[in-house]
């Protein structure tokens, strides 16, 4: 048969793949497109002898260009068109029933003979073809390339970064996207709605990390992307704040994914960081984060950009005066307020304190051992500053506590652990203890408003003492 290159166009990629398989059995070379836009993008880099399009694409009713009109804008010569209709009742020379494969093949032969008398046969180009994800979703494009059994590299560029999918005879062998690899990279790229995908044919250098049929891989990625989108809506404000693992809560993490999430959040992180760093699917991580937050196993520290005032403008002069009096004679630097609690609560508290207005981070990083360390210095104006110091209640390090407590204004105790060593250390340097539970009941160290109130109360207690 003179015709060797057929372009099939239909919005339904599954129907495309089915018809393409039948036509290939008849010896035809078939390429696919999921609409007029992809048809134009593919036609720019390869010549086709006949275009076969579903009626919805050839004669759209929504006012958009049909596939032939769209091709006429892009190409100097437009190939002949066959329109697929659902019933043989509407068949004619230019219209054939989708199920009548014999008629389709015969009409292709007729059109090819007419074309062969007027111009030499065209050959496909090996130049890269570029597709906009808005018009050619990556999932559809992968199905098309798999059906055509193409080999090459599909480069995906989005606002979030770039990635590559390497194919060997239509099978996805490897994928990378920003910091992700393998099937997780595929799912993340398929979820993208804006950007470009450029296919460069050839034999890519690969290290095969994926051994799943492309259609199965695409369906799995579609399902995961849809589930992740739904879970993000359920997550509410979780993606907007810093998350950290918390002690206690209702029960321990049971599943492996729960344990991985809790372990990673021993160091605070944004939800997007968690999604990028853990190997599990985005949907599984989001599901675990929502579940753990409901159980109290992880806490949200709020927006990184939010700032809470330590006190109102009408109270600032009083707080400033209390902080100035709290500075001990003979000790250099700012007045110091020490907060004693478990290491986990202090990790949360350290981020919460930094959300207070005019709070400055410490010059030194948090030490790896649970020893006293600075959390923040709050500038109150007129040269008055207040340093917030953490004292982890780990009895093994109790001999170091007097050095951190000496010269402190007051110690605020959040937990009852290590009560005797703490009282002995405070007694040795004559520093008073304020039991926060006696004043506030349960203290939420992730609440900037409550921590600001706690600091003001501690300064008042020191002034009263």
List keywords for this structure.
single chain; 465 residues; alpha/beta; Rossmann fold; Arc Repressor Mutant, subunit A; 4 domains; six-stranded antiparallel β-sheet; six-stranded mixed β-sheet; 38% helix; 22% strand
What topology does this entry show?
Elements: E1 5-9, H1 13-25, E2 29-33, H2 36-43, E3 50-54, H3 55-58, H4 67-74, E4 81-85, E5 95-97, H5 101-116, E6 129-132, H6 138-147, E7 152-158, E8 161-168, E9 171-177, E10 180-181, H7 182-190, E11 196-201, H8 214-234, E12 241-245, H9 256-264, E13 269-270, H10 271-277, H11 282-295, E14 298-303, H12 316-326, E15 335-341, H13 343-353, E16 359-360, E17 373-381, E18 384-392, H14 401-405, E19 410-413, H15 419-428, E20 433-435, H16 436-440, H17 448-464
Proportion of β residues?
A: 15-25%
Coarse structural class? alpha/beta
Overall shape: it is elongated
- Largest sheet entry: 6 strands, antiparallel
Task: Please tell me the total number of domains.
Answer: 4
What is the straight-line distance between the termini?
102 Å
């Amino acid at each position: 048969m003179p015709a060797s290159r057929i372009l099939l166009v239909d919005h339904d990629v599954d129907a495309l793949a089915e018809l393409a398989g039948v036509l290939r059995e008849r010896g035809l070379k078939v390429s696919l497109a999921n609409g007029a836009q992809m048809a134009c993008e593919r036609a720019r880099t390869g010549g086709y002898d006949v275009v076969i399009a579903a009626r919805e694409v050839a004669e759209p009713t929504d006012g958009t260009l049909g596939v032939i009109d769209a091709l006429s804008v892009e190409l100097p010569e437009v190939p002949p068109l066959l329109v697929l209709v659902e019933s043989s009742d509407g068949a004619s020379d230019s219209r054939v029933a989708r199920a009548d494969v014999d008629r389709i093949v015969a009409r292709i032969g007729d059109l090819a003979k007419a074309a062969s008398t007027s111009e030499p046969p065209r050959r496909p180009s090996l130049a890269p073809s570029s597709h906009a994800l808005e018009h050619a979703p990556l999932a559809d494009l992968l199905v098309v390339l798999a059906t055509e059994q193409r080999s090459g590299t599909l480069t995906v560029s989005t606002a979030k970064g770039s990635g590559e999918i390497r194919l060997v005879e239509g099978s996805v062998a490897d994928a990378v996207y920003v910091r992700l690899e393998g099937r997780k990279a595929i799912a993340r790229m398929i979820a993208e709605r804006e950007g470009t995908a450029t296919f460069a044919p050839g034999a890519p250098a690969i290290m095969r990390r994926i051994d799943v049929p492309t259609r199965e891989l695409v369906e799995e990625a579609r399902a995961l992307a849809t589930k992740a989108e739904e879970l993000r809506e359920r997550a509410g404000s979780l993606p907007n704040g810093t998350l950290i693992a918390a002690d206690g809560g209702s029960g321990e993490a049971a599943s492996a994914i729960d344990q991985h999430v809790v372990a990673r959040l021993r160091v605070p992180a944004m939800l997007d960081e968690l999604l990028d760093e853990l190997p599990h699917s985005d949907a599984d991580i989001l599901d675990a984060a929502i579940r753990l937050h409901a159980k109290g196993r992880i806490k949200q520290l709020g927006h990184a950009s939010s700032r809470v005032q330590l006190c109102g403008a009408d109270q600032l002069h009083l707080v400033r005066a209390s902080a100035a009096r709290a500075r001990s004679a003979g000790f250099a630097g700012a007045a110091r307020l020490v907060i004693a609690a478990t290491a986990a609560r202090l990790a949360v508290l350290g981020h919460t304190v930094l959300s207070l207005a005019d709070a400055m981070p410490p010059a030194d990083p948090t030490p790896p051992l649970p020893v006293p360390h600075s959390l923040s210095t709050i500038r109150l104006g007129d040269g008055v500053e207040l340093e917030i110091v953490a004292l982890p209640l780990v009895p093994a390090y109790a001999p170091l506590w007097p050095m951190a407590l000496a010269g402190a204004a007051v110690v605020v105790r959040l937990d009852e652990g290590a009560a005797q060593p703490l009282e002995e250390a405070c007694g040795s340097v004559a520093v008073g203890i304020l039991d926060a539970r006696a004043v506030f009941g349960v203290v939420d160290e992730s609440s900037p408003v409550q921590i600001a109130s706690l600091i003001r109360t501690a300064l008042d207690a020191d002034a009263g003492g």
